[in-house]
Amino acid sequence: MEKKDINVEVFEDAENETPQQPVYQVRPHMYEKFKPLSAKEIIHDVLFDQLATKSYDAQAAAQWTKDIADIIEGKIKNLQFKRYKYIVNVVLGQQHGAGVKVGTRCIWDAEADTYAYDSFINVRMRKILSQFSHFLFLICK
């Protein structure tokens, strides 16, 4: 049997390198935190643009509600806050002059999650919109 020379090079970095552990981020950094004022401005603008010239129509109300929720969710996603999930809740009703109370609940982390809220009321209809932003902390980098 012949002996063969084998050239083995050892890199210094390879000797000292330790395997990286996964990084779990359970809170957003301050600069990554969702800004509810930005969402409130979007909600206000969309509600005004979509409803200012309309009168209440029971047949069209369901579609208006879906359209407004989709527009607002899309615009809020365009703000590109990392690792947030958005829930948009829209309530549309006819304005008869009587009062109405709407309550929404959401279980969340008070340090990372937040919400934005706005309403639109004219002579014929009222629209109440709330949007919740949840930080997803179960994702590994």
TrEMBL record:
GO terms in the biological process aspect are: microtubule-based movement
Q: Which Gene3D superfamilies match?
A: Tctex-1 (3.30.1140.40)
What GO CC terms are in its UniProt record?
cytoplasm; cytoplasmic dynein complex
InterPro entries (UniProt xref): Tctex-1-like (IPR005334), Tctex-1-like_sf (IPR038586)
GO-annotated molecular function = dynein intermediate chain binding
Record-linked Pfam families: Tctex-1
Q: Which family does it belong to?
A: Belongs to the dynein light chain Tctex-type family.
Put simply, this protein is called Tctex1 domain-containing protein 2
Lineage of the source organism? Eukaryota, Metazoa, Ecdysozoa, Arthropoda, Hexapoda
